[in-house]
Fold these 4 entries.
Entry 1:
Amino acid sequence: MCASQCEDGRCGAAPATRPMNTRSMNISWFNRRPRPPVSGLLAASMTPFKGASIDENAFSALVADLIEAGVDGIVTAGLAGEGSTLSEAERERLVALAVEASGGRCPVVAASGSNATGQTIAWSLAARRAGADALLITVPYYNRPSQHGILLHFTAIAEVVDLPILVHDMPDRTGVALDPQTISKLAGVNGIAGFVGKPATLAAVNGRTTVLGADDGDVPAAHFTGCGGGLSLLANLLPRTVRLLHFACGRGDLAQARAVQNRLQPLLDAARGEPEPTLVKAALSCLREDFDGRPRLPLIRPSPDSLLQIELLLAELASFEATLPQALAASRGERRP
């Protein structure tokens, strides 16, 4: 079923984003309102397409099932959600759909970063209009700003947008890494609620603010160095298994954490052999009949060999996932009295 889908990956191009006039933007302060902190297992949701449009029904069903399985938050339009191929209207719509599907059961975090400060502000304000609870904003990519420029970038956004901001540090994607001094300064900016990245890189602010891991492979290291959780691509596929991993790490059960991580490692290794999130997205279409696994160009479907490998891995992992509802319920009850 999976390998037979369109091999060239053509799923339409994103509608053009309207030109942005920063001079006409209303950048007045919004009234501040308290929001719950974002922590725990954040599912980096993937975006299903139907032709050139978002498949809204499939996306809403995915979000609802992820929340039912116990994730602590939903991230929209990030790397896993092919955010770089989405228009501003599509980004805003994904937030609205996630908010509706969540029904207030968990926070919705909108990825709204770009390499232009004005564009990031526009996407962030659109996410706020749609009901987002927080923002995930990457360090600007491609143009490689200086550390001071990065500081001014995030300060400008925080001054305008009335939502907690998680700063996403991923130098392998952006071409520039936050240095410890910049991280420390950003932690003191009003509106910066935390950081997402490699636990070792963010050690200087761990304990002062929220720090989350950026990768499924970092979960044990993140928890055992005091992080409050992390982003997960694999949660789209195996939310209960990933939830169990976070729970075991959170309560210091190293043996269980290692056992679950060992189960997931072959899947992680396979997923890294193709551009993110193409292999996991194709795998999800094996588990969900309503979910089209084709990415939007310039991404294409994985090779036949990769698809075969992932299908073989999924057979065992899906069986393990099916045994977890009772364990999941117990873990959630213990974590959230």
Entry 2:
Amino acid sequence: MHIDYFAGCLAPAAEAVEKDRRMREIVFGASFSLFVALSAFLIAAWPIPGRPVASYFPPGLSASQVAMAVGQAGGRLLEIGGNPSLVISLGSSAGYAAELYRSGAWFVVDASFARLCITGSWRASS
């Protein structure tokens, strides 16, 4: 009878330990899945030298300011989105994406990947 009392006291503690272990497994699985998905996104969106890139500049910049930043990075403006902060451009140097970041771009991805995500009006640059 004395042993049954202790066994009854330990059962809730064992259940709590098992629940904690399952929760750690779930958190690890979710974190690992997020890491893999983010890695796949970055690989797919990585700018390829010599191909057009989509760049997102700070909101509030005018189309002329964005065009100047693209020119400063050594690129040629191809298209401007409905929002002038989002542009498609082409640069000839291998480090063009890095130059866009130095010119003020917040985000630079391969344009073919970006077109899959973008809806709305685009207009060609003149």
Entry 3:
Amino acid sequence: MKVLSYIYMVLVVTVFCSCGAKNSAANASEPEKPQLYTDSKVEFELGELVGAISKSQLSKSFNWFRDGYGEYVVDTTTMSQVKPYLEGVQVKLFMGTWCSDSQREVPHFFKIMDAVNFHDIEIIGVDESKTTPQGTEKLYDVINVPTFIFLKDGQEINRMVEFPWDTLEKDMLAIFTTTDYKNPYAE
């Protein structure tokens, strides 16, 4: 009974704080670092990272990032084929720290890119409405997260949206070596 009372209290606090976090995050110039409350089995995250985010913030703030990054095994064979194509490429990554797809794919993506020493990645956090205070998501027509946009000379090459068709590595290879790659939401 004591455990149920504790869970109920945490849920009430989470709902109350989440509503306040959305309003304050929209008005703040710098995203707030989420507060983490942990018991032995559950991590409660109050707040969202919205706007510009660093990999360091993700790593320091979220167990799901550290765990996903640590557990992922990179397909080095495929990435050795992708690496030459990354010269001059920039990646814009739109994600939600609240989003289960982002929590699954983003740590894996960073492990992959670290394996080929690629670091030209701009991370933009969206709120649960998939918006940012600056409206950056509108400039790039982001409707689902995570969205990985590959750019060269400021022009979009292609994008992966929400999940890969095959693996992140193989989808990247298809983006750079074929003209028929389409993300699951492309028309």
Entry 4:
Amino acid sequence: MSQIPNNSRFQTKQGRRRKGLLLNILLGIVLLTAVTVAYQLLTSSPEQTATKETKTKETKTTSAAQKKKEDTGQLVVKEDDKDSAKEEEASTQPTEDTKVAVEDQTDPAVQEAYTNPSWQAIGTSQSGPHTTQFDDSTQDWKEMTQAISYAVQVPADTLTIWYLGNNGPNKAVGTVTAKATKQKYKVYIEWVDNEGWKPTLVQLMK
């Protein structure tokens, strides 16, 4: 009869040990999981932060480079526009290099004669059918003197006009002298519809 209590105590102790062991195992698992998670957070967080910072810097660098490229492109376009405008302006001005000598002149008073392929009509403010006017108070006269000035490359207000008259349908001829150099010119011009008077021949007179 005395062995029954002893067996009962033994079984109770065994049960307590098993429960304690199970609790210890569960506690160990929880601690191990917590340590693992903490370690992952500590080791991965700086890398992720660095990656985000790197991506942000790359994005800013790319945006800045793209903006600089666009700004540079705009500057290039503006410079190109200026160059084109200068070239267009230069192309409307007659130059010495484009003069073409005209040799077969029968007038013994002619020292030299030339034409110029770059000559253009000077433009006009007149509209409608054109009628040549040799009255020095008219717009037509003013535009004819401008065409002569353009041909000899001497300002119109520094030219003395000796003669300006008819040379055929829609054509005129003028004799002028440059006040500064005393050089005398005979200039032939013709009318171009909607474009104005255009020089066709310059003669330097003796």
